């Protein structure tokens, strides 16, 4: 599948992983990438679809979805990021892209998938934005068209990262469980409550999801007098 080239409307935000990111941040995502690979045994050479969710909005799931995808693209993998949070989309804006067509446009037949996916040269990956905000996002997520779309995209990408809505807010993430090979769950320091983590695990387990692990987001670390925020790491389940 050949994607259109992206048209950046502003430089990438500082929160997006790049060679200029602090070394500690780069190493954290390198470790996350390694742990994901080892958490999907028996899938060598096969396409992997990984959902990313959180308990509440604003806990860093979209940033972590993008950065994890970048970490895989950096080692030469064919990577796609899908913004499936169609109520509060943020992927395109986060990476400085202006995109009109997207996931919702494809699912309702307004455009072909080739016209909705764009390639980001700066990140080395493809992006399928959310598109126009639909009146019933859940209905689109659980549609047969969504299943066919994921099946088709698996033929073109080694890794597909799907940014999903917070799992305790709407059912979309759990609905996507049968179409994914695993989930990354983002929790935020001093924000995500223990009972919310338990509820997320319960809902994902009920949906038959494969929980690959957790990304603990929003801690502050100091090293040799330097202060780093938004420090990410992986903790296997």
Structure, described:
The protein has helices at 23-38, 61-73, 91-94, 103-107, 137-141, 144-154, 172-175, 194-206; strands at residues 4-5, 48-54, 79-83, 117-120, 125-128, 159-163, 182-188, 211-217, 219-223, 226-231, 234-236. The strands form two sheets. The chain has a nine-stranded mixed beta sheet, sandwiched between helices. Strands 9-10 form a two-stranded antiparallel ribbon. The N and C termini lie far apart (34 Å). It is an alpha/beta fold and 237 residues long. It is 30% helix and 23% strand. Helix 1 packs across helix 2.
Q: Which helices and strands occur, and which strands form pairs?
A:
Layout: E1 4-5, H1 23-38, E2 48-54, H2 61-73, E3 79-83, H3 91-94, H4 103-107, E4 117-120, E5 125-128, H5 137-141, H6 144-154, E6 159-163, H7 172-175, E7 182-188, H8 194-206, E8 211-217, E9 219-223, E10 226-231, E11 234-236
Parallel strand pairs: 1-4, 2-6, 2-7, 3-5, 3-6, 7-8
Antiparallel strand pairs: 4-5, 8-11, 9-10
Helix pairs in contact: 1-2
């Amino acid at each position: 599948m050949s994607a259109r080239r992206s048209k950046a409307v502003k430089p990438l935000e500082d929160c997006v992983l790049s060679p200029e990111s602090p070394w500690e941040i780069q190493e954290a995502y390198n470790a996350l990438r390694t742990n994901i690979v080892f958490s999907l045994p028996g899938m060598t050479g096969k396409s992997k679809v990984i959902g990313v969710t959180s308990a509440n909005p604003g806990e860093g799931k979209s940033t972590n979805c993008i950065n994890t995808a970048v970490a895989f693209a950096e080692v030469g993998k064919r990577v796609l990021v899908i913004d499936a949070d169609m109520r509060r989309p943020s992927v395109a804006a986060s990476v400085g892209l202006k995109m009109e067509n997207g996931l919702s446009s494809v699912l309702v037949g307004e455009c072909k998938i080739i016209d909705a996916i764009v390639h980001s040269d700066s990140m080395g990956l493809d992006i399928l934005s959310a598109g126009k905000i639909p009146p019933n996002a859940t209905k689109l997520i659980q549609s047969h068209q969504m299943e066919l779309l994921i099946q088709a995209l698996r033929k073109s990408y080694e890794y597909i990262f799907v940014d999903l809505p917070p799992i305790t807010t709407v059912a979309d993430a759990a609905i996507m469980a049968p179409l994914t090979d695993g989930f990354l769950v983002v929790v935020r320091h001093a924000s995500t409550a223990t009972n919310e983590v338990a509820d997320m695990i319960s809902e994902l387990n009920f949906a038959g999801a494969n929980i690959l692990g957790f990304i603990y987001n929003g801690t502050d670390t100091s090293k040799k007098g330097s202060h780093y925020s938004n420090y990410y790491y992986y903790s296997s389940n």
